[in-house]
Coenzyme A biosynthesis bifunctional protein CoaBC
Amino acid sequence: FTPKRLAGRKVVITAGPTFEAIDPVRGITNSSSGKMGYAIATACVRAGAEVVLVSGPVMLPAPLGVRRVSVSSALQMRDAVFAALPGADVFIGVAAVADYRPVQAAEHKIKKSGASISIDLTPNPDILAEVAGGPNAPFCVGFAAESRDLDGYAEGKRRSKRLPLLVGNLVADGLGGDDNTVILYDDAGKHPLPRAAKPVIAERIVEHLASLLPAGAGQ
Ligand code: C5P
């Protein structure tokens, strides 16, 4: 790993799940430990970048040298990302953002009765697609955790979200654990990485993205 590959670069990263409130004590969330996103943040700091980590609720300490902005919902995550974005060279979306949120959270705790109930859900914005499709978009990296047909879904997402780099993994290989098996997808094709601990995978991913990064001011 060439040290300081990201010196002078600003990187914004999302990590962890989002939590979409149903009422004051309940909500919809995704299962995400935040370990991969936090490992990527650490690897970016080690490579010399200025790092803003926009994090959903996780049980992890903020990595040294990272500015962490803690959020709960997808809408809060989007606001925090766009607030951090000016001047960013790279955006890495690692968060497991909830696809839907309740149309309106109940003000008070919903009481149970014998009747069945339903919750109206509305789609959340796709933060990564909005950043990648916006004006002056930074170099955008996405993640795709799939339970099957990884190549098909990963390439489809890379194209539809307009990402130069996407990191794919099978859910069974990485979710919640300390190790992961990932494949990198870019314009040149697919690059499988050997199974390794998440901090090792993170360094490989950062090394790869640094090699694809267009030369910027001060480089
Ligand atoms: O489409 P899918 O959710 O599988 O795409 C995953 C990628 O998109 C991840 O990089 C994730 O962080 C990002 N994403 C996002 N906002 C969403 C959904 C996904 O930034 N609402």
About this structure: Helices lie at 35-46, 74-84, 127-133, 150-160, 171-174, 198-212.
